[in-house]
Design goal:
The protein has about 140 residues and is mainly α. The protein has a single domain, classed as Four Helix Bundle (Hemerythrin (Met), subunit A) (Up-down Bundle), CATH 1.20.120.550. It is built from 5 helices and no strands. Helix 4 packs antiparallel against helix 5. The model has no long low-confidence stretch (mean pLDDT about 95).
């Protein structure tokens, strides 16, 4: 039963690696295009061009609300809340993280990005309710 929650967790971890690879590619391109030198970014990454900074910021975002996601996944498995509904919520959350990244490193449309983020937070809240109900 708990395997249903392992798969979206593994998918999100894979996505985090994908985002890190995007950061690497964009930073490499910045060096190759001579938009930045090593000395420019030795202390702070502010000198990278915007595409590289957006990717790096998104990578940092992967350690904000996803921390809540991973905690809820572990709690759900521990308290017996690993239902199909919880799995669907988990997959929906992963989808919001992917969509958030695509907007963040793409158009960076703040209104759309914020809406996607809000949906993700609402999904996390739903997962939290599922865990609380299982505990009660």
């Amino acid at each position: 039963m708990t395997l249903k929650l392992v798969y979206p967790s593994l998918a999100l971890i894979l996505w985090i690696f994908v985002v890190l690879f995007i950061v690497f590619l964009r930073r490499k391109a910045a060096f190759a295009g001579k938009q930045v030198r090593k000395g420019d970014v030795a202390v702070t990454t502010d000198a990278y061009p915007e595409p590289a900074r957006l990717a790096a910021n998104n990578f940092s975002n992967q350690f904000e609300t996803p921390v809540i996601f991973f905690a809820l996944i572990m709690l759900a498995m521990e308290v017996g809340a690993a239902s199909y509904i919880m799995a669907a919520l988990a997959w929906a959350y992963v989808a919001t993280r992917v969509a958030h990244t695509l907007v963040h490193v793409g158009s960076n449309n703040l209104k759309l990005r914020a809406s996607i983020f809000a949906v993700g937070v609402a999904i996390l809240f739903g997962m939290w309710i599922g865990v609380v109900l299982a505990v009660l």
